[in-house]
Amino acid sequence: MAPTSHEPSNLIIDRPLLRVRQRRAFAGEPETFLLDQVAEEIAERVAVVLREFPLVVDLGTPTDALRRSLAGSGKVGTIIAADALTAHATRYRQADVLAVAADEEALPFGDGALDLVVSGLALHFVNDLPGTLVQIRRALRPDGLFLAAMLGGDTLIELRQAFAAAEAETADGISPRVLPFADTRALGALLQRAGFALPVTDVDRLTVRYASPLDLMQELRRMGATNMLIERHRRTLRRSTLARMLEIYGERFADPDGRIRATFEIVFLSGWSPHESQQKPLAPGSARTRLAEALGTKERSTGEKPER
Hints:
The protein has helices at 15-27, 33-47, 65-71, 129-139, 157-170, 184-193, 213-222, 239-253, 291-295; strands at 53-59, 76-83, 97-101, 114-120, 140-151, 197-210, 260-272. By secondary structure, the chain is an alpha/beta fold. A 7-stranded mixed sheet has the order 3-2-1-4-5-7-6, with helices on both faces. β1, α3 and β2 form a beta-alpha-beta unit.
């Protein structure tokens, strides 16, 4: 769906199309290995926190994998599944989990209502990530925790480069075909801007091998993650472009056994709703020991040359 004249100009994702493709994918035989891995990792991170979380929201995660992992951690109470896809899907409905139909960009929770918000591989599909992060922080109680996993900047970089090179040779311009994922530094800055305390981002880089780029593209379809960019070309992909893309991908990103590589960069984000009990950074100039003393060197004034 193309944006109409009254829609904001900064929209990137065609979210109605995203939901259609996700419903189609998860109604059939979806590919969930990334979601399963992320769910296990987030649950492990919750398990090591020395506190319990009575009220938890799983925001946008397309399956119940994260909710099942959290339920087994022993650290959570009531879990609410909040998204527009699985809230009413019987396949991923758990008897002990509440379901709320909600858009990740318009949270239906009051300020300070939640103890923990988690999200697995969903927030890279929102158009207003800064606004979503602000809403999450406001919905958390003081000292509440936010934990999420998103796809990062190098995800599918091989497919992006192969398509760009093929279209440059065979078509009349390059069409955006892979989502422009945010990098780790940018995501850390967004956590700070949203008002989270003690923000942390870290990366898990996963290389998956396939028999061919067509197998990769088929797997992306079963993830519900094929091209849903608003600026995508609506015309059918030329056979010559596809053929050349397959050649370039194999030339640049194949291993000696002929299998091709695909990168998935998973960025984990965490941050706390501010609370007076949390650690605070020291004020500038409050250090009691000079850096030169700690390093065992002689302190020199600005412009002073070292002795030879």
